[in-house]
Design a protein that fits this description.
CATH architecture of the largest domain: 3-Layer(aba) Sandwich
CATH topology of the largest domain: Arginase, Chain A
Number of helices: 20
Shape: globular
Length: 582
């Protein structure tokens, strides 16, 4: 009998050991096969593909997950199109292609909140340059300072798609999704009216009190400071190691100025600035003392040579602005004779021509090409964008290269595209500590956002090192690349370079070479409407003592003012608010 009990005990031990081993093998196998997806995209709204996939794979529960958003921009605007978004209750299988098609890089988060992929909580970790004063006034950035914000997100009950079908004026249309009941408290306890509801022209505010499909969303905005505790991440979006979605934009580590990126996209406009750079680089001898130079007490602290350079720099910048905005045209010798009766046809100032290192003849050719370049630039770009570059960024100027676009000046420190690699790695270590404190997410998405936001010479370096951090912190990852993107190589650009579309550059070069004097004069006449509007705009800004960013909020007043100013003149004036921004 004792032998039987011994045998039974042995068999029981073997059975228990087998069950234990089998169970843990299954758990281990399941863990190994449940790799953490890291989705890499370029345009930030494309992360919706990976978020929806995570929902379909049951990694995102029905109630959604909180979002940890690491970005220089909030991406919290509202889509402005005719698409009618549906919650998961209305459509249990969201169409990824439709969602991406009807969102953009600045409005995908509210969409994910509304349909239910995200829950009510978003923690936006921003850089100290992200609170860009004034940007919310022209609809760029939608950024707001550190604090806690709550507001209601819902669909508009009385929304008419025919507004879009009938091509109504933009002021008369409204967003399908809307915000209401906004409330913001800064970290110092003071209330603020800055927040997501500050959309341009108020078109994103709800105008009804119905409560159908309402969702109260909370945004927590923080900076990550060195040597501070990172426990705030768990206090704001749930206990440590509870599931969440981690979303990182590479422009968090280095970013171009968003206003410049919006009005002077490197991809769409970079070729103009590159052409300007090539026309003027190594062409000017600014240390040449001109006979008509006037001394100024403003430069009295400088050496004589430095005063000469400063005087000539201002002289050239003034000349460039006269060509770009005041209708100063430089034509060929034949063109000057043919159109001599027109007051805007300029002759070459002999003193100014002495600034060209390679002689007067070369200087004349450069000025003729500059005339064609600025004429085409004004034709191809919106009046408000051109006016913004002139008033806020002193374009064109031979002194500046902001966003690596030659001729654009930017004197504030709200963006910092020229951070060093060491600074990038320092910020990445802070991020490592933050996600280590938080724990493993349900899914990770990374947006490259280049070339218009993440500087092209840094994005590969940032992505390569960021992926190393993520793989170190989250074992067993599956890196997936969206729509044909490929991994970056561990070889990086050494220095900032101007990135532009070579095909567009070649086309611009051909157009400038082919333009005749007659065509330049015809295009100038076509541009007169924009140029006169810019003159009116500057006069209005001076009288009101406001910046062009304020004009975006007072466009109707500007239209009325301009009409009064020009009522006795035969000059085209903007008739509507929308026309101000064309």
């Amino acid at each position: 009998m004792q032998t039987v009990f011994i045998l039974a005990g042995v068999l029981l031990s073997i059975l228990l050991a087998w069950r234990y081993t089998t169970t843990n093998t299954k758990i281990l196998a399941r863990t190994n096969h449940t790799a953490l997806v890291i989705g890499i995209v370029d345009e930030h709204n494309c992360v919706l593909k990976f978020w929806v996939d995570a929902y379909r794979n049951k990694q995102v529960p029905e109630i959604g997950l909180p979002l940890l958003h690491i970005d220089s921009h909030s991406d919290g605007s509202l889509p402005f199109n005719e698409y009618q978004f549906q919650t998961k209750n209305e459509n249990p299988t969201p169409n990824t292609e439709e969602l991406i098609k009807n969102t953009n890089i600045g409005d995908f988060i509210p969409v994910a909140q509304y349909i239910g992929i995200l829950d009510t909580r978003t923690l936006w970790v921003q850089r100290n340059w992200s609170d860009q004063a004034g940007l919310h006034r022209i609809g760029v950035g939608f950024n707001f300072p550190p604090g806690n914000y709550s507001l209601v997100l819902k669909k508009r009950e009385h929304w008419d798609v025919s507004d879009f079908e009938n091509d109504m004026m933009i002021d008369e249309r409204q967003t399908f999704l809307c915000y209401k009941n906004s409330h913001g408290v800064l970290l110092d306890g003071n209330l603020t009216d800055r927040g997501l509801h500050n959309l341009p022209r108020k078109r994103g505010l709800c105008d009804d009190d119905t409560q159908d499909n309402e969702k109260e969303v909370k945004w927590f905005v923080r900076h990550v400071q060195e040597h501070e505790s990172y426990t705030f991440v768990n206090e704001l979006i749930g206990p440590k190691n509870s599931p969440y979605i981690l979303d990182i934009d590479l422009d968090y580590f280095a970013t171009y100025t968003p206003v410049i990126s919006n009005v002077a996209s490197i991809e769409l406009n970079g070729h103009y600035f590159e052409y300007l750079r090539r026309l003027l680089t190594n062409e000017l001898c600014l240390d040449t003392k001109l006979p008509d130079m006037k001394k100024s007490d403003e430069y009295s602290y400088l050496s004589e040579k430095e005063q000469i350079i400063q005087y000539n720099t201002r002289r050239v910048n003034r000349l460039l602005k006269q060509i770009a905005y005041e209708g100063l045209l430089f034509l060929s010798r034949e063109g000057r004779k043919k159109y001599a009766k027109y007051k805007y046809i300029s002759t070459f100032n002999q003193n100014t021509m002495k600034l060209w290192c390679n002689g007067q003849e070369r200087g004349q050719k450069v000025l003729e090409q500059l005339t064609k370049l600025f004429t085409l630039f004004t034709i191809e770009n919106r009046f408000f964008h051109v006016a913004l570059l002139r008033s806020e960024y002193e374009f064109p100027s031979i002194e500046c290269n902001s966003n690596h676009l030659f001729g654009i000046c930017h004197y504030t420190d709200i963006s910092h595209p020229d951070v060093t690699r060491g600074e990038v790695l320092e910020e990445m270590e802070k991020l490592r500590q933050l996600i280590r404190e938080r724990g493993r997410p349900a899914v990770v998405t990374v947006a490259r956002s280049q070339p218009d936001y993440t500087p092209p010479h840094l994005y590969k370096f940032i992505e390569y090192n960021l992926l190393n951090v993520l793989q170190d912190e989250f074992a067993n990852v599956d890196i997936q690349y969206y729509d044909g993107l490929s991994p970056v190589e561990p070889t990086f650009d050494v220095s900032p370079v101007s990135t532009y579309n070579q095909t567009l550059f070649n086309e611009l070069e051909e157009s400038i070479q082919a333009l005749s004097d007659q065509e330049v004069v015809m295009l100038y006449k076509k541009n007169q409407k924009k140029l006169k509007q810019m003159t009116l705009l500057r006069k209005y800004m001076d009288e009101q003592e406001i910046s062009i960013l304020d004009v975006a909020e007072r466009a109707e007043d500007f239209v009325n003012w301009a009409e009064y100013q020009m009522q006795t003149r035969h000059t085209h004036i903007p008739k509507t608010r929308e026309e101000v921004f064309l």
